[in-house]
Structure formats: C-alpha cells, structure tokens
Automatic annotation (TrEMBL):
<dbReference type="GO" id="GO:0000166">
    <property type="term" value="F:nucleotide binding"/>
</dbReference>
<feature type="domain" description="Ribonucleotide reductase large subunit C-terminal">
    <location>
        <begin position="827"/>
        <end position="913"/>
    </location>
</feature>
<dbReference type="Pfam" id="PF02867">
    <property type="entry name" value="Ribonuc_red_lgC"/>
</dbReference>
<dbReference type="GO" id="GO:0004748">
    <property type="term" value="F:ribonucleoside-diphosphate reductase activity, thioredoxin disulfide as acceptor"/>
</dbReference>
<feature type="domain" description="Ribonucleotide reductase class II vitamin B12-dependent N-terminal">
    <location>
        <begin position="22"/>
        <end position="147"/>
    </location>
</feature>
<dbReference type="InterPro" id="IPR000788">
    <property type="entry name" value="RNR_lg_C"/>
</dbReference>
<keyword id="KW-0846">Cobalamin</keyword>
<dbReference type="InterPro" id="IPR024434">
    <property type="entry name" value="TSCPD_dom"/>
</dbReference>
<comment type="function">
    <text>Catalyzes the reduction of ribonucleotides to deoxyribonucleotides. May function to provide a pool of deoxyribonucleotide precursors for DNA repair during oxygen limitation and/or for immediate growth after restoration of oxygen.</text>
</comment>
<dbReference type="InterPro" id="IPR050862">
    <property type="entry name" value="RdRp_reductase_class-2"/>
</dbReference>
<dbReference type="InterPro" id="IPR029072">
    <property type="entry name" value="YebC-like"/>
</dbReference>
<dbReference type="Pfam" id="PF08471">
    <property type="entry name" value="Ribonuc_red_2_N"/>
</dbReference>
<protein>
    <recommendedName>
        <fullName>Vitamin B12-dependent ribonucleotide reductase</fullName>
        <ecNumber>1.17.4.1</ecNumber>
    </recommendedName>
</protein>
<feature type="domain" description="Ribonucleotide reductase large subunit C-terminal">
    <location>
        <begin position="198"/>
        <end position="747"/>
    </location>
</feature>
<keyword id="KW-0547">Nucleotide-binding</keyword>
<keyword id="KW-1015">Disulfide bond</keyword>
<comment type="similarity">
    <text>Belongs to the ribonucleoside diphosphate reductase class-2 family.</text>
</comment>
Length: 1245
C-alpha cells in the first residue's frame, strides 16, 4: 500500500516543529502525600500537566529499560526498523543500579509504538516501498505528539517493549496465529508478540472446571486484567437455580457463580499498574434467574445502607452500655447488673429498642466486668471504595440484560413472557412482560444497573451471522461481536483537526488519519497474542477493529453549536459516517493486497448487505433498508453546518461499497465509539467519546502541585464564533471563574471583616487561600485562621469548631445572600447562566451533562443524549459507550421512556445513571432544610422539659416574637439637613440624565433625584415622582437591594449605549442604568458593572475641612460620599499630619506611601483605590503571587468527606474519591468512571 506524508517532511525528524520541555510529574493524595513522582521527563510543550502525569504514571515503562542499546540486523527489514536489545558490553561498564531504569521521554514512547507497528507492518507486507513505511512511521509519531489520536491503554502498556528495548519474560499462557503460515501457536515469551487489545468477549460454558467453563473463565479474565484489558461475557448458558445436574443434584444457580467472578475481578489491578478490572456481565431476558440478576445491585445497595446505619446505631448504644458500666461506683458486681445499676438498665433498654442484639449487649457487659473500659466497633460509610461496599457483591462489573424485539413487543401488548430452563428449554415461570420491564426500570432507577442490549438490532447489523449470533459486548458496550473475539481501539481527537482561524474542520486531514489508523489497528491484529486458543483463532479469522473518536462535545462548543441541536447531531453523524466509510474503504484496499479476512467468503452476502445499509443512511435515505427490524436515523444533509462533510461522507461509503464488492474486506468490523477515559486525558480532550462536557470551569493542575481555575477551553472560542467582542468575553469568563480576592467583593470584604475583628495578617491568610478556592466557606475555617484567633478574638465557642456543619461567616452575622454574592464574586458562578453580555438564545451552546456550579439550572435532557447517539449509530460497526445522565428527580417512568426511545431509534445498547442512585453519591440538595431540622429538634427538646421549664421557654419565645415585631415597625429615618452625595451625568441612547444622591452620615443612601433634559413635562414629572417614592422607601427601611433586583434588566426606551459613566457601558432602560449605578456605588455590586473598577479607580475630590486630633481618626464616610467612591468609603481612614503615612492592603500590612506634610491621605484598607508608580523591585514575585492559583491547601486534608463530596458535585464530578489517588475528581466516562487527576478508569480504554 502507498502512504503519503501529510504532517511531516522526508529527511526531517517528525518532532522538528514540535517544541518540547522538561517537566516533573507528581500526583498527590489530598493530604499532600506523594502517590507518584518522576523528575526530568521530556514532553511536548503544549501538553497539560494532567496529560504529562498520565503519560508518566500510566504509560511510561517504569523498569527494565536499558541504559545502552544496540540494533539487531534483520535481513529484508529496513535499518530504521531493526529492533533493539541491551548492549551488554556497554552496560557492563556502568554501575549495576544504573544499567536499567524507566522511560523518561515522551518520544521514547511514541517511537516504540510507531516503530513496532511499522516493523510488523513491513514484515506483513503492508507497504509498497521503504518510503511508504517511512512516511507511515513518521506521521504516526507526529500525530501522537500533537495529541491528534491515541490507541487504547494496552498498546501503551505493552506494544514495542520487546522491539525497542529487548524486554521479555516468561510466557503467560497466550496464543497467536503465525501471519506467514496461519498456524495457531502458543507464545514462547511475554512481549515478543504484544497484547494490544483492550476489548474482549469471552464465552462461558455450562461446565464447572473444564476448559471453557466457569472456573476457567476466571483464569482467562485474570490474564486479561493483568495486561490492562476488559472483558464481557453472556452467562445465559449457565443453568438456573435448582435446575437438575447430570450427577443427580441441583444447580446452585447463576447468581452464585457471578458472585465468585465479582470477587476475583475485585482483587485484580489491571495492566499491572493501577487500572481497576473492567468487566461486563450479560444475561438474556428469558433466563430463569433473570429476576434475581435484575435486582442484584438493588439488594446490594440495601445491604450497604443496613451496614452503614446499623454500625452507627450499634456503636452508639454499645458504647453507652460500656460507659454505664464503667462510670458506676457501686460495690462488687452491682455495676454489671441492670437490676442494680439504673443507668445500665436504661442503656440496655435503649439498645434493645434500637434492635441491638442481646448477645452483643451482653458481650459488652462481660468486657466491662473483665476490666475493659472501651470497645472498638467499626463504623462504616457509603464511600464507594469503603469497607461497606467492599463487603457486598456486584460492585466490579457493569450488568446488562439482553432484550429481543419479541420481548419488547410483548411489553407493548401486555402479553406473557416465559422464562426457560437452559438444558431442556422447558418453561420454568411465566410472568407478564410488563412486570419484568417495570422491574428493569425500577432497578436502573434505584441502582443504575442493569443497562440494556437490544439484541435484535445488534444482530440486524451483524456482518458475520454465519459464525453465530452476537450475544455479548465488552465492559463499556461499544464492541459487540461473536464470543471469543477481541478488538483493539484507537480514537481521534476531533478538536485537533478544527481550524479556529478558518472556522473549518480539516476533513482531508481527518480522512488521512482514519486511513492510517485503520492500518495500525489491522497490523495490531497481525502482531498480537491472545489469552486463549479460541480468541487467538477467531480474532485472526475475523480481524475486528475499533477506530473511534473523542471530543465531539468540545468541537461542537468551539464551533458555537449546541450539543442538543439539529446542527450538532448532523455534524456528529457526518463525521462518524466519514470515519467508518474511510475505514471500510481502507479495509477493502488491504483486502486487495493481502486478501479478505478468512471468514469473509461465507459471510460476504450478509456483510455487503450491512455495508449497503450504512451507505443508505449516509445518503440520507429514510426507507429501502434491507432486513432491518428498526430503521436507523439517516444523515441529516440539510442540517450539517459544513456542507462539504456530507459530500465526503457519501463519497466514502460509495467507495467502501465499490471496493468491497470487488475485493472484499480485510476486517469484519472497523469502528466503535469508546469512552476514551485515560487516553482522552493524554490527548487533553475536553470531552470523552461522544459525551458532552461535564463542567464549564475546570481546575487545571500545576506542575508544582495545586490547581487553578480556568474556563473550559472551548468557551472563549465559542463566544468568538458567536460574535462576542474580546472585552465581553473577558467579562463573561470573570463571571464564571471569579476574581480570587475579596478586595472588591460585595458585603464580605476586608473592610467588613475588620469590623468583625479580623487583623491584616488574618485577612492576608484568607486572601492566599481564596486564589484556588471553590467556595469561600472552605477558606474561613480553623485551619486557615487558627483556633486561638477564632475562639479568643472572634468569640467562637470551641465546641462549634468541631462541628462539620459550622459556618463561620454565618456565625459572624453575614446573611446567606451576602455569602452567596461574595462567593460569586470571589469564586465565580462556575456557570454562564446570568453572565453579563451573554444572550439567552446562546445559553444552549454551553449546556453540559449536569447543572454547572452552585447556581446553574440548565443541563442537557435525557432525550438529547439519546438522539445524539442515534445520529451516530447508523455509521458505527459496533456500538457507542455512553451513559445517559438523569436528574435526581427522574421517575421510574422516565427510565422506561428513555430505554424505549433508545430502542425505537435503533440504538444497540444503553445505560442510565440517575443522579444519587448510588448511596455513595451525595444529593445536590438537602433532604430537609437545616432550619426545619433545627425547628424539629427544638420542639422535641421542649416537649422533653418539665412543665415549669416549658412555661419559661414558651414565654421567652413569645417575648422574642413581640420584640421582633416591634423592631420591624419602624418610622421614617430623616436625612440630615446638610448631607453628602454625588451627581452623575450620563447619556443613554442619546438622552441626557442626571442622577443625584443624598446620604446619611454613615454613608448609607437615603434619597435620589432624577432629571432628564429635553423630555416632555409628563415624563419628567413621572421620573421625578418615581425618584421621590424610591427615596421614601429607602427612608422607611426598604433595602436598596430590593430596588436593584426589581429594576435592573428592565427593558424600555430610551436604552442603548451609555456615555459619561466609567463603569456602565450599556443599559436596557433608564431604570436599569440608575439602579446599576446605585448598586455599584453603594452595594459593591461589581457584577453589574461592565468595566473592572480596579482598572478605572475611584475619583476622590475635596480636602478635610478641619484637622482633628491624630489619635482620633475620622471615618472617611463622614467626609466623602460613599457613593462617589463606589462603595470604597468603608475602606478609607483619614490620616493627619506627619511627613509620611502608611496604607494597609490586603496582602501586606504596609506599603509605605508618603503623605504631604500636614496634609491628609485617604488610606485604602482592603483594595488599592489610588495607584502610585510601582517600584520595579519585587514586581515579578508580586505578579506570580497574584496569579489565580495556589499550592495545595493544607486545610483540604482536614475538611470533612461530605464537604469534599459536595464540592466535587458542584464542579461536575460524581462526588466519589478516586480509589488510586483519593482525589474527588471522578467523572462519568461512557458507562465507566475516570479520574481527572491520575487518569485511572473503571473502563477499558
């Protein structure tokens, strides 16, 4: 075959145009302990720290890489493809500890992968000339380095170790087919033939101990898990419970064996590193034990709830029993006799009421009698990697039920359904199909399992039905084919092929990539070894491949297209059609040169029929499909935003069919859409597989540890595509990410904190923690501020500090509204909903799988996920790994509707995940409000009091209510006769308006006047009287916030651009302008400004009329209008006399500003209002310190698990700790989970 260069130049290194950098890879636990560290690694400069960490921790070979190598000459192989072995002579001159080590450069990995593929490709006859092989080799290396594509994890683990380094080991029981002779051969070494396949489907016979049977399956699974692969099996051949055995006994049933396999899988780490074993269990809908299988995980979740609750209850009561024994001062054995120890009798009675077993109670009393003073009784929690979950079964596999159209039609008709014996085929039970359907939906709703396989649709698109029916899939349900076959995967990073400047997807580059990587995957079949004879034989016979893609969600957002849109689905369909069409055409090319796969001839008619059906869908045809029970969703030509993609899709399938009819195909399957968990991280993909994004604000890892918040990389590109200006984009980003400082924050700022007793050094400590904080409440804690300061200075009771729910800011008197406003300013909204400038019609572009941040409400609907899958499925050989996210309030009926829609749109498989369906996952909202909980506790406490105490308590409450009522009935608060204020002139849409304010002595707003020139008398009178009514409201106690909330964003003329106001640049009405201005000036609502106030400063005029005593500073708001200073008055103090003065800022106690002798300086506390010329000394350090990130917060280790779970949920993660690195950064990844910190996955990509 011929291969042209597209991204490299002949005679030049493929890395010549790619800058590299030195990096340190380090992964830490939340407590700061190091999980992994490797220094001095070489990586491409553009790679993120997470991508570097995944490469170094997961994919670098950690041992056995020789320090000196030599080439092994091989006849008929080009010299650049000769394999290498250790240079023993050179190594002998090195100290023993330096002779071998770890891979330390990304190019070592790229070279061993691409070199090994090209080496075996040359030996297999895939290249016309040496130049073709060289072009193939170089373009592959460049694509890997540019993060354009990545193979599945087992390739990174195993491929090229023998070719590049001569690494080998004893055989592990694998088999391969000799590519020259076609002979099935047992492997003689561990790595000469690598194990590059990620996805396996294995059969299991109804036999206990023989080869191919139940116990043999656990051995075969272990062999796969060891090399980093995943496996799925259909267990429906196993007899149901109580079916007769040949020896006269009865079978223990399907579930007993599934529990054994679950335990085996749970004990194994995958790939010899840190990947969890990936496993799929499938059972047919007519199996006699299918009801128990459906309910399996539901019951196991109930066991976890019982363990957690029971452990807490039992521990509480047993400790109380022990305490009653120990604290007793009676003589002899009286302390241990409930009849003679009243306290013990009471605690025994309480324990028995709580259903604590008598034997456990007596055991504690017996311990106490022997002199013990305490007992250790473990308390379990619902963490998914906790002892409670490890104790129960079913946690190490994805479960699916295989449905036929016959069953689904029986559900529609409310007909009966029969469960049949495995050996005789006789009916064991007849039930209503709808009852079984209801059970499936209830289980999915309650425990997120089982998923569904639509078996009829799977087999309608089967290319090789002569070989048998498709019965199973791999763990993530993207690879579906015959039992005892395997698939190796590779996925393209779609966003890497999008030209942002030209706003065009590089379709020619995409086709080049698809062609090259189809060949890579085919060569991988040729060179591979397999875990059993059957898999080696059938994988050679059918040669199935798994080319796919990732980052479709990132691509759509970058292009400004909503995931849930006709255009988004049409684009995804077109790209999928091109990929599979080109892949099948390439397979036909290889068949022309090397022959079709061995089983092609007997399946040729069926395969060509499937290819024709694919082609019909690419041509947009709604009818005319051959032998399909459910027609697919055809490609939407008119909806595709880049029309040329449709033409390329049609051409690709025309060519695939023409070449296939002439030469056949080299591969029975070509494509899948995998979850791309770990490989998605190594490619720096924003989104995985076909998934949308899970969050708009990401926490980017720093090389030295720690994180800082950044907007999703696709957001600015999307905003540019939608026509927003750079200044507007910057404001939208700031709204989402936050300012990382309290300097200009509303309500909670350095000024208000000083009023509460905070010192400058404590404010500086808070500021340092805010730079990477997710919520300000996580910074205002005892670890940041110290217990002495909290108890002695702020007066916090010591016992309150230990309470997980203690909120320091609320204790200090800040309202929930104040805290939320400060939170949004400092930490960002983490959503774009409500962002300045962003038009509501553009919100759908930024919709994610879950609501974003604390205040986000929007998220993608269940139907949008399913319809996106349906747009891609007609162009995939296999299936799509995807989990449909559902909100917590979704119903069982919603689950049934989602599964039914999936069937009617011709999907092959689907799985649902309802938020909170696992006990380990925290709910987004409290079950009952804290206030309601407190009220209930207060009522219970009151009822428990004696009658006299009740009377006192109730009387106190009545008095409190009367006082509260009197306080609320307030009279008008008159303004002083001579008062401060300011006048602001501006033009709105060409109309001039004057705003004048009047203030109380303490700086509060008390009145406003409005005047408009060149307006009619009626409008002027209306405006004037409106201002009077607002003024009266302010004087009678109506908060200014209420007016601001009521009148901002109102729309009427005049409206438009604003001239003459530094902070506000446009307004939707006169009232919108007026109350924006008042909110900015008096409430510190910088979120309503269009320009950062720190950039424009505040204009301060006037001098102090008198010189008070130096020891008696006058508050600034007595001299200068607070509104004029835009809310900065509470951070100003008059400093008199002397040759110099000082100012206190947020981050430093003093700046050493000078004041004129005898003059007055307005010193700023908490924010720089008046800029001076900066000194060059320390500028770089100051800039570095001001960046919006920080080192890991030592306080994080002390935060409760519930706090960290809640924070993770609001960031878009699932709320669980990674079992490898313990960080709460697990995100849904197809039907699995992946960790965004260390790259661990529960899948097989």
């Amino acid at each position: 075959m011929r291969f042209e260069r597209r991204i490299t130049t002949a005679g030049q290194s493929p890395y010549a145009s790619i800058p590299f950098r030195k990096a340190v890879s380090e992964i830490r636990n939340p407590d700061g302990s190091v999980v992994f560290r490797l220094e001095g690694i070489d990586v491409p400069e553009t790679w993120s720290q997470v991508a570097c960490d995944v490469l170094a921790q997961k994919y670098f070979r950690k041992a056995g890489v020789p320090a000196a190598l030599k080439k092994v000459e091989e006849t008929g192989v080009p010299s650049f493809l000769w394999r290498s072995v250790p240079d023993e002579a050179a190594l002998a001159g090195l100290p023993e500890g330096e002779r071998a080590g770890s891979e330390t450069s990304a190019t070592q990995v790229f070279d061993r992968l691409a070199g090994c593929w090209t080496y075996w490709g040359w030996k297999g006859g895939y290249f016309t000339s040496e130049e073709d092989a060289s072009a193939f080799h170089d373009d592959l290396r460049a694509m890997l380095a540019r993060q354009m594509v990545a193979p599945n994890s087992p390739q990174w683990f195993n491929t090229g170790l023998h070719w590049a380094y001569g690494i080998d080991g004893p055989a592990q029981g694998h088999f391969y087919v000799d590519y020259k002779t076609g002979a099935l051969t047992q492997s003689a070494s561990a790595y000469e033939h690598p194990q590059p396949h990620a996805c396996f489907i294995q059969s299991v016979a109804d036999d206990l101990v023989n080869e191919g049977g139940i116990m043999d399956l656990w051995v075969r699974e272990a062999r796969l898990f060891k090399y980093g692969s995943g496996t799925g099996s259909n267990f429906s051949r196993l007899r149901g419970e109580n079916e007769k055995l040949a020896g006269g006994g009865k079978s223990s049933g399907l579930m007993s064996f599934l529990k054994i396999g679950d335990r085996a899988a749970g004990a194994i780490k995958s790939g010899g590193t840190t990947r969890r074993a990936a496993k799929m269990v499938i059972v047919d809908i007519d199996h006699p034990d299918v009801e128990a299988f459906i309910d399996w995980k539901v019951k196991e979740e109930q066991k976890v709830a019982a363990l957690v609750t029971g452990s807490k209850v039992v521990s509480k009561h047993l400790k109380a029993v022990m305490k009653a024994c120990v604290n007793c001062e009676a003589a002899g054995d009286a302390c241990f006799d409930p009849e003679r120890n009243p306290a013990l009798k009471r605690e025994v009675r309480n324990a028995r009421k709580a259903m604590v077993p008598d034997a456990a109670i007596k055991r504690v009393i017996q311990y106490a009698r022997q002199g013990y003073t305490d007992i250790a009784f473990p308390i379990y929690d619902t963490d998914w990697d906790s002892e409670a979950y490890l104790t129960v079964a079913g946690q190490n596999s994805n479960n699916s039920v295989s449905l036929t159209d016959d069953f689904l039609r029986a559900v529609d008709a409310d007909a009966d359904w029969t469960l049949t014996q495995r050996t005789t085929g006789k009916a064991t039970k007849t039930i209503k199909a709808r009852d079984l359907w209801e059970k499936i939906a209830e289980a999915a709703w309650a425990s997120a399992d089982p998923g569904l396989h639509f078996n009829t649709t799977m087999n309608d698109w089967h290319t090789c039905p002569v070989g048998g029916r498709i019965r199973a899939s791999n763990p993530c349900s993207e690879y579906m084919f015959l039992d005892d076959t395997a698939c190796n995967l590779a996925s393209a990073n779609l966003l890497a092929l999008y030209d942002r400047a030209a706003k065009r997807f590089d379709v020619e580059g995409y086709e080049h990539l698809c062609r090259l990587w189809t060949v890579v995957l085919e060569i991988s079949v040729l060179m591979a070894q397999f875990p059993s004879r059957e898999i080696a034989d059938l994988s050679y016979k059918y040669r199935t491949l798994g080319l796919g893609y990732a980052n479709i969600g990132g691509l759509l957002m970058t292009m400004g297209l909503p995931y849930d849109s006709r255009e988004g689905r049409a684009l995804a369909g077109a790209l999928t059609a091109i990929m599979t069409g080109v892949s099948y055409a390439t397979s036909a090319e290889m068949a022309r040169e090397l022959g079709p796969f061995p089983a092609y001839e007997e399946n040729a008619d069926a395969m060509l029929r499937v290819i024709r059906n694919h082609r019909r869908a690419a041509h947009g045809e709604a009818t005319g499909y051959e032998f399909l029970n459910t027609n697919p969703v055809p490609l939407d030509h008119a909806g595709c935003p880049q029309g040329e993609l449709v033409a390329h899709a049609r051409a690709a399938w025309d060519r695939a069919l023409a070449l296939g009819e002439e030469h056949g195909f080299r591969n029975a399957q070509a494509t899948v859409i995998a979850p791309t968990g770990t490989i998605g991280l190594v490619m720096d993909c924003d989104t995985t597989g076909i998934e949308p994004d899970f969050a708009l604000v990401k926490f980017k890892k720093l090389a030295g540890g720690g994180y800082f918040k950044i907007i999703n990389r696709a957001v600015p590109d999307a905003l540019r595509s939608l026509g927003y200006r750079e200044a507007e984009i910057a404001e939208i980003e700031a709204y989402a990410v936050g300012h990382g400082s309290l300097g200009q924050a509303p309500a909670i700022n350095p000024g208000s904190l000083r009023a509460k007793g905070f010192t400058d050094d404590k404010i500086a400590a808070v500021e340092a923690g805010l730079k990477s904080a997710f919520d300000i409440k996580f910074v205002f804690n005892r670890w940041t501020l110290g217990e002495d300061f909290l108890t002695k200075t702020l007066g916090v009771p010591a016992d309150k500090l230990a309470e997980p729910s203690f909120d320091l800011l609320a204790f200090l008197g800040f309202s929930r509204k104040d805290i939320e406003a400060a939170n949004v300013h400092v930490c960002g909204a983490m959503t774009l909903e409500g962002a300045p400038h962003l038009r509501p019609e553009h919100y759908p572009v930024f919709d994610c799988a879950n609501p974003c941040g604390r205040i986000g409400k929007r998220y993608l609907s269940v139907e949008s996920h399913i319809r996106m899958m349906a747009a891609a499925q007609p162009f995939i050989s296999g299936a799509i790994s995807k989990t449909i996210n559902m909100p917590n309030d979704a119903t069982v009926e919603d689950c049934k509707n989602a599964y039914r829609l999936s069937w009617t749109l011709a999907l092959k498989a689907n799985a649902l995940y309802r938020d909170g369906s696992k006990l380990s996952q925290p709910l987004n909202a409290a079950l009952i409000s804290d206030e309601a909980d407190d009220e209930e506790d207060a009522v219970e406490a009151l009822l428990a009091q004696p009658a006299a105490a009740k009377t006192v308590t109730v009387t106190e409450k009545i008095v409190e209510r009367i006082v509260e009522r009197v306080e609320r009935l307030r009279s008008q608060e008159k303004l002083p006769s001579r008062r401060k204020g300011y006048t602001q002139k501006a033009k709105i849409g060409g109309h001039t308006i004057f705003l004048r304010t009047g203030e109380y002595d303490d700086g509060r707003l008390g009145e406003i006047f409005l005047d408009m020139n060149k307006e009619g008398s009626a409008l002027r009178a209306f405006i004037n009287n409106f201002a009077i009514s607002v003024s009266l409201g302010l004087q009678y106690g109506v908060p200014l916030e209420e007016y601001v909330d009521a009148f901002t964003f109102t729309r009427f003329e005049p409206a438009g651009f604003v001239q003459g106001n530094d902070a506000i640049k446009n307004a939707t009405s006169v009232l919108d302008y007026v109350f924006r201005e008042l909110a900015i000036s008096y409430l510190g609502r910088t979120d309503l400004a269009h320009v950062d106030l720190s950039e424009i400063g505040t204009a301060v005029t006037g001098v102090a009329p008198a010189k008070p005593a130096a020891s008696d500073p006058v508050p600034a708001h007595n001299v200068v209008s607070r509104g004029l200073l835009r809310g900065s008055g509470d951070r100003l103090t008059l400093i008199h006399g002397g040759p110099s003065g000082a100012t206190s800022g947020v981050a430093a106690p003093a700046t050493g500003q000078s004041a004129p002798a005898g003059g007055t300086v307005l010193a700023v506390r908490g924010a720089v209002a008046l800029k001076t010329e900066p000194s060059l000394a320390g500028t770089i350090e100051a800039l570095a310190e001001a960046l919006p990130f920080a080192k890991p917060d030592p306080a994080a280790a002390g935060r409760s698990v519930s706090d960290r779970r809640a924070e993770a949920k609001m960031k878009g993660y699932v709320g669980e700790a990674c079992p490898e690195c313990a960080n709460f950064t697990l995100v849904r990844n197809g039907t699995c989970l992946k960790c965004d910190t260390c790259g661990s996955t529960t899948g097989c990509s």
